[in-house]
Design brief:
Helices cover 29% and strands 15% of the residues. With 755 residues, it is α/β, with parallel strands linked by helices. The strands form four sheets. Strands 8, 9, 10, 11, 14, 15, 20, 21 and 24 form a nine-stranded mixed β-sheet that branches. Strands 2-1-3-4-5-6-7 form a seven-stranded mixed β-sheet.
């Protein structure tokens, strides 16, 4: 890295911001406004201390400052060094930057920004009209910087009010700064203004840290520049540190923080045979010699309550699927991506001794108290209400912090520590162990890792004896969020299970069930919505992957947009991602759609709405509709009964333009889709005609529990699979995988319809 061996950069300069952003640090910036209304970055209201000019910043235009004023402090003002001592071409020579320039650097490297609004009554450049804040607001908006990556901070709460009242900044975080003499009032004032953080002057007492945490705020003290202070602050339980030497602070903080748990040894082949689903079938494979794309492993995971009694049980099940379906076929010439399903972590709420009674409810769907003769989802509701009691103490602690919420949402919130220790740590560890990328999702809150003893006592899983830390929710909002873990850590900071997360996506729009559970949709407009959908380039390939968790994969132009019919030319598809999700993903350049699925209901549905036909409107449409240009769709399904709710489907990988080998091309389809049916009880919508019949675009398609047959016969089999049926086929879903290499450009003549 250019300048790697040069430890000092000019204060609040583009060289300093670039150097810090490359290392993944949040950038702290101070704002000032020039005489012509441009926002520049400088700590002081005067130019004297840090540049070779004098006078107030607001007495000069941006052009005058750019022409005449070079930053002449190297590092901080306590040093004797000046940048004027450097050669003319030294990369640390710098002029005063604009806010827009610095925000572009932050966006380029994907880092957050901590932006101080420096409009103070005791400063000679104080603006009492509010124009200072309005100009900062406008220039942030014009930059396109995602508000969700922005922290707005100030010593004066009034400086933050304009931003808090503006819906555009609804996802931005608020931080209240305090001088040392006012540290004691920081938590109270911060809470009263709705702050997410307090930033007190260091040193800070344990009482202040604990009080802020109890009020739902994080503590980020300033300015800590010695190893001893960083260690003391870390052990005191602060959540982050503001430092002029962030690299040193990171090293010391990581060393002082609790170490991630040691991953257990891989399960034996004997163990893996024991935990495999009874109806396990060999994987469907479609390999290709070209290496410009990843090897994709779409796992069809059969959930079983027996696999979540302990954290080790869940880890064993997931790792056994990897050992069975992935490890023997790992590519050594391209990245390997393991795709698991939507809501793969939800069932882990029932982990541990406190949930033993709830596991009994999940495990006996025919005899759920209070659900005799009552149809689904009575049982799943009763199980969730039982979990509500299992997590009562954590729910009470969060209720005092964030206020009350619905029983279902508060249960997901209370399970934050369980999720962090369980499914998330498992996926993080396995991505590293097998050098793969892994996709999975869950309904959960954003969280941090805390060593504050009061938070460990309140939120850590009581089965974990001697816990040194706890995973603590930072917001009451519960998102259906998908994560992509990579084979290596991308940061040394933050909660251990998140350090190798390279990409994530918050589901939008939500299903009726998710709305009933009081989940929060992801952003649907503005820069945050675009960042939520922006594709991830899988390293070493041409694959640009976006996630569309179930319902979003159907959203082209409303709920029932006709195949191949574009929206009005005046529509910007990224203006409302809840409506135009797939069109926006296409506009952003994705060529691979990851459609993780957990379909709550029978695949062979009996209500006149044939699920396999409906799903063609997502997994197949993505690679067939001329409105979009996706090359591949990957749809891993979760299967298996959970209480009285069944999950079913057929995992698939589809490819645009796939015709199959000349003379050997095949056509295939989901079960029951051989033709459009128009007579009761199967009155398929006429618009679904394009989805019926065999299709060439399937690279691989997992089998259902039986061969294709009439829908009446398929429904009869589906009823046997259902919870409480008493049939030998009850819960006997297929567990398997679809494996395919995904070269770019796609090969239209490769073998198709494997499976």
């Amino acid at each position: 890295m250019k300048g790697k061996q040069k430890p000092l950069y000019p204060e609040e300069s583009m060289p300093a911001f670039r150097h810090a952003a490359k290392q993944g640090f949040v950038l702290e910036m101070d704002t000032r406004v020039t005489s012509d209304g441009r926002v520049v970055l400088m700590h002081d209201s005067e130019l004297d201390r840090t540049t070779d000019c004098s006078g107030l910043v607001n007495s000069k235009t941006l052009a005058e400052i750019r022409k005449d004023c070079e930053i002449d402090v190297l590092g901080t003002d306590i040093r004797d060094d000046t940048s004027k001592q450097l050669g003319a071409k030294d990369d640390r020579r710098a002029h005063v930057p604009t806010l827009a320039e610095a925000l572009r650097v932050a966006m380029k490297f994907g880092v957050g920004v901590n932006l101080e609004i420096n409009n103070y009554g005791n400063n000679p450049d104080y603006d009492a009209t509010g124009d200072f804040q309005r100009r900062v607001s406008r220039q942030v908006k014009d930059s396109g910087f995602p508000p969700g990556d922005l922290i707005l901070q100030s010593f004066a709460p009034g400086n933050l009010a304009l931003f808090q009242e503006d819906p555009y900044f609804a996802d931005a975080k608020i931080s209240f700064l305090t001088l040392a003499s006012l540290n004691d009032i920081g938590p109270t004032v911060g809470s009263s203004i709705g702050a997410d953080y307090i930033s007190p002057a260091w040193p800070v007492s344990a009482e202040i840290i604990q009080k802020a945490h109890s009020l739902g705020m994080q503590v980020v003290p300033y300015t800590i520049d010695t190893p001893a202070e960083v260690r003391d602050a870390t052990l005191a339980g602060v959540d982050a540190i503001i430092s002029d030497d962030p690299a040193m602070a990171r090293r010391v903080a990581v060393k002082a923080s609790p170490k991630p748990p040691t991953a257990p040894k891989p399960p034996s082949r004997t163990t893996c045979r024991r935990v495999a689903a009874a109806n396990s079938v060999p994987p469907i494979r479609s390999f290709h010699r070209k290496d410009s794309g990843p090897r994709m492993f779409a796992l069809q995971f059969k959930q079983d309550i027996a696999n979540v009694a302990t954290y080790r049980d869940f880890r064993t099940k997931i790792e056994c699927m990897i050992r069975t379906y992935v490890e023997p076929k790992l590519a050594d010439d391209r990245p390997n991506v393991v795709a698991l399903n939507e809501d793969v972590g939800v069932m882990t709420l029932a982990t541990g001794s406190r949930a033993a009674g709830t596991r009994e409810i999940f495990g006996d769907p025919a005899n759920i108290p209070g659900c005799e003769g009552v149809p689904s989802p009575c049982g799943i509701v009763q199980a969730l209400l039982s979990l509500d009691g299992d997590y009562a103490s954590q729910e009470a602690a969060y209720s005092s912090r964030f206020g009350g919420s619905t029983p279902f949402a508060q249960t997901f919130l209370a399970g934050t520590d369980t999720f962090g220790r369980g499914w998330m740590q498992t996926f993080s560890d396995l991505a590293k162990r097998y050098s793969v990328y892994i996709v999975g999702s869950n309904n959960q809150a954003e969280f941090r890792e805390s060593i504050d003893p009061t938070e460990v006592a309140a939120f850590a899983d009581p089965d974990v004896k001697g816990a040194r830390s706890a995973f603590v929710a930072t917001s009451p909002e519960i998102h259906n969020e998908a994560f992509l873990w990579g084979p290596k850590d991308v940061t040394k900071d933050g909660p251990a299970p998140l350090r190798n997360v390279v990409y994530s996506n918050k589901k939008v729009p939500l299903t009726d069930i998710e709305n009933a559970l009081s989940l929060t949709p992801g952003p649907s407009s503005g820069p945050d919505a675009i960042e939520n959908l922006r594709p991830y380039r899988i390293p070493g390939t041409k694959a640009k992957m976006s996630i569309a968790t179930s319902l979003p994969a159907f959203a082209y132009d409303g709920d029932l947009s006709p195949f191949g019919e574009p929206p009005a030319a005046t529509i910007d598809p990224c203006s409302d991602t809840a409506t135009y999700y797939m069109l926006c993903v296409d506009k952003l350049g994705a060529n691979l759609v990851m459609q993780d699925e957990a379909n709550p209901g029978p695949w062979a549905s009996a209500d006149g709405s044939w699920q396999p036909l409906e799903w063609m409107g997502s997994s197949w449409r993505a690679v067939a509709d001329p409105m979009v240009d996706f090359d591949y769709n990957v749809t891993p399904f979760m299967v298996g009964n959970l209480a009285d709710l069944e999950f079913d489907g057929q995992t698939s990988i589809t490819q645009r333009g796939l015709k199959g080998p000349k003379g050997k091309s095949k056509r295939c389809h989901y079960v029951g889709n051989s033709k459009l049916l128009t007579a009761p009880p199967d009155e398929d919508p006429s618009a679904y005609g394009v989805y019926a019949g065999g299709k060439r675009e399937f690279l691989g398609l997992a089998p259902w529990v039986s061969a294709d047959a009439s829908r009446a016969k398929l429904r009869a089999i589906g009823e046997q699979l259902a919870p409480g049926s008493g049939s030998p086929r009850e819960n006997d879903y297929v567990e398997t995988a679809v494996i395919a290499d995904l070269p770019f450009p796609p090969d239209p003549r490769r073998p198709n319809c494997r499976g």
